[in-house]
Structure formats: C-alpha cells, structure tokens
Amino acid sequence: MAKIRIGWFTFTCCEDSTIVFTELLNKHYKEWFEKFEFVHARILQKDDSKEIQQMDFAFVEGAISSDAQETKLKKIREMSTTLVAIGACAVTGAPSNQRNFFNEMQKKEIRDVLDKFKYKDKVMKLSEVVKVDIAVPGCPMNEQIFLELIKKVINNTTQSS
Amino acid sequence: MTYMHDGNFDIGDINKDTYSIKLDEISKIEGAASLEIKVTDGKVEDLKFSISEWKRFYTQAIQGKPVTAIPPLVARICGTCSNAHLLASLEAVENALSIKISDQTLLLRKLIFHGLIIRDHALHLYIFALPDVFKKNSILDFDMNDPVQHEFLDDAFAVKEVGNQLSIVVGGRSVHAPYPTVGGFLKLPKLDEIKNLVTSLKSIRPKVLKLIDLFAHSSFFHEVQAPFVFTSLVSKDFSYLEGTIQTSRGDMINEKEFGNHLNAVVIPYSHARGFSYDGQLMMVGAIARLTLGKQYLNPKTIESVKDLLPFFPTKNLFYNNLAQAIEILHSIDQSIEIIESLQAIQPEAPIKGAMKESTGVGVIEAPRGTLYYKLEIDEKGVVKRGEIVVPTGQNQVIMERAIREIVEELLSKNAVQEKIIYEVEKFIRAFDPCMSCASHFLKVKWK
Question: Could you give the ipTM of this predicted complex?
Fold first, then answer.
C-alpha cells in the first residue's frame, strides 16, 4: 500500500508544536514511519527538492511574516490535498503577531529591522493567506486533537485504498 | 565515499577555483539558519553565517506587562528549550521582587531541568547528529535490518521519552510547563508519580552509555585555531540552575555581573546579534560546562566516564556532542538520586513578593549554554525594560569563525564543493544552534 505523503513546515513561531510532534514520535514512530512518507520535514531530514512536492497532508505551524513566506505557503496550498494549521501562531497568529499590537514607541524601535529585512507590515495567520482545511489549536498544539486527527488520516486512507 | 545530494544549495560559477555556495535552510537544527560562502581563486573571499528566522520582538513585547505575566510569555520564545526560558525568567522576577524560593521548589525545578536536558540533548544527538555518524540523510533512512542502526533508532525514542515524562510529571508539560510560577508551583507533582520514574530512568542508562561511547570514538574533528574563552555557570551539583559564572581564563563572577562582560557584536546580514566576552571570542554550551565543571558531575557518572573526562578541556568543538551525551548520563544519575531522596511533597503555596521599583537578573545554563535575563520593573511591578541574551547569540561569532577555518582547510586540500557543504553542515549541527532563541527579541542598530 502506498504511503501517505506528508509535509511538515514551519513559519514564524517557536517550533513548540514541532517539538511536541517529535515527542509524540517516541510512542508512535513505528506506526508513523510505516504509514507516512515524509516528503518535507526539515527537522528530520535534508530536503533534496528544490520545489514543493505533491502531498496528501501538509502540516503547517507558525504565522506569516514576509512575502517570501506568503509565496511558499501558497505553493504548499497548491501542492497539498489537505492543509492543516498546527498550533496557535498558525491558527490565530498569536503570539507571533504581537508586533501588530505594538504602540507607537515600540513600533519605532523595530522599524529599522522590519525595513532592512523586508518584513510584512502585519503578521498574518494562515487563513488570511490560504484556505485552511483543518485547524489543530493550542500553544503548543493540543496533543489529543492532533492524535485523533492522525488516527482518522490513517484509518480513512487505509479504508479507501 | 559519496556525498548526499542536497537540493538546498546553489553552486554559482562553473570555474573550479571561483564559485559561491549558498545554503538556504540548513536542515536538522532548531530553526532557520543560512550560510553563504564566496570562493575566489581557491580562497575564501567572503563567508556569512546568518540566522534567518523572522523576529517576534519579545524584548519589546514584554514592556508594559505585569512582571508576573512574563515567564509564561517568554517561554514562547523557543519551543525546544521553553522550560529554560521559563526558569531563567522566573529567577529574574523572583530576584527583582526579593523572593527566596523554598528548597522544595528549587529541587523540583532541578528535576524539570534534568528532564529538559535529557530530552533536548537526545533530540539533538539522536535525531540531528546521529545520521551524520552513520552517513545517512535522516534517522528515517536507518536500515531496520541492521541491528546496530535499528537499536539506535529504538534508543532515540526511548531516551527522549523518559526526559519527556520527567518534565511532564514534575512540570505539567515538557513544552511551556504550566506548573512552575513566580515563587513556587501552581500545582505540585504527585510523589508516587515521581517515584515511578526511577525504573524508566534506570532503563535508559545503558542506552546512553552506548551513545557516549559512539561519540567518544567519532572521527569528527576540528580544533579551533582562533583564541577563545569558554564560559559557564558552574554549580557544585551541576544543576544548570545555580552557581557562579566561570571562564576558562580563570574569571569567577557573580551572575548579576555577567551582562557587564557581554559585548554585543552587530552582524549586519543576520537577523540576530552576536556576543563576545570582554571582547574575546566565546563559546558556551555542554563543552564549556564539561570543561569548567566536570568535577561536579554525579559520582556515578564520573565513575562511568572517568576515561573520557580527560578529553576536556578541548579545542575540538565536535566534542560538544560527547559533552552533551555525558550530560544526559549526569541528568539521569542526578534525577535518580534526587527522586530516591524525596520523602514527601509539602503542600506549599507560591511565595508572593511585594511590588517595588527594582531590577532582577536570572542566569541559568540552558541546554545550549548560558541564558541571561535582566528585567527592570517599576513600583507597580510593570516591566520597563528587559534584556535577554541567549546561548546561540554568544556562540554565533565563534561558529562563523570556525566554519571559515574548516572551509579554508578543505580548500587547501582541494576538497570538492559537496564535501565542503557536508563537513560544514555536520559542524554546525555539532554546535547545536537554536535559531528560534537567537532571533526573536534583540534590538539591533544598523549602520
């Protein structure tokens, strides 16, 4: 049976959900390594591909801070059947979007950095850029919701093939 | 040998002696970093190691917030070592409010921290660094029919899980632990659940000895030529949380003074700021801790690795891997000792401090090195200013210097570009940089 093609992507955030994911592997790696093909996952492997590959599921954590990130996210959307927003920054934008709410003095302090590296004016949650199919909220992501999702993904794919 | 194909770099020129290498997103590290090397006539003309994470401006975000709200917020600076940010900022807040925590609180925090060291070092050594040892792209490529590789894969997850459980049982969660709070614990762990961890801690000890042996006999080698100084917080029980700052040139300073010795080094092409110690290149992390405090490791650990301790001090920075593996063993042995001596968990409420205009410093040894917090608060307990210096910032300058040395040495041996990239990535991974930490809060002035 063909493996389920998944990608794991990180934008602006603290990568706490990636860490939770690597801790969930402790108990589930045998099953997940057997069922999933990790098409993109920089935390686990070098990425040989210049371009984003076709995926059944793209798991995306973090908020969007730059045009380059926005372009990449749109490409991920295009290449994935199902896009899952992972954790608070992807789902709600917070806390990575805290600069959106800065006062004038705070904004002035960070202006040079924003200009120099071409940051977007506002940090965006994923659904402001692309259609999000499923959201796993939490800071870090809620483990139970994620595990139930993965269980469904494995069961549905097994039944339909 | 063959080198892994890497689609992540661009090789510019076809001329053999003049070319540029650009690595956009270095894999198997925490966060995003990039490297640009320009070679002209077989010599390094330009080399830039930069942190390419997008900032979240925590230094600004904490301004104007009540000081007691800071620790759970700054824990979100880094998912990998969030509990280090939590405990360092708690110490800074408690010092600002003149709160003296109880012995029980300190002991439980030490346990949380040993859990962090076990799971964080294990993530780095097994998932990030081990594939380099076996010349694989990823732990996903380990050969399940090879008993050695199969066993290391199983060990990886078994060891990580024990550290994870230790953090969960004592702190409530291994990432952004909800129990620790200013002055104590919001919820106290259960004694029987802590006691139950001893069996699993003992069960991973032989696995970690195997890991230590592997990195002790690794052929990875680069001695840094540039003069530099190791710095670390050193404590009698190697707890990562207490002690005085010591350096390999013999300084011994109070943690409150540490900030005065750190000089910011602006790196214009990086999103983060580098640091030096009194103007000298500095290195922090497990290799610095072993160099300066190896005599304070748990006696059982010392007994098990006594043949390896003379490896430190060393200038071979690849031994950071070995030092981390030894620290996992120490954290296992130390946790067992602490847990076995625990008689009861007293129902203590968090100690409250009186708000006053004040400055508090908190310094701990995060998994990757010294983590410094300084918080200035007003009479109502609102944060006026904060400063946070993370380990990867302190290591960034020497990391770039050492990469340049490696590239120059390889060029002098006529190494091909693929070899250069492979060696440099391997070296960067041995440093175990943490880009989430490094890039998200520092105020930078551009020229």
Answer: 0.93
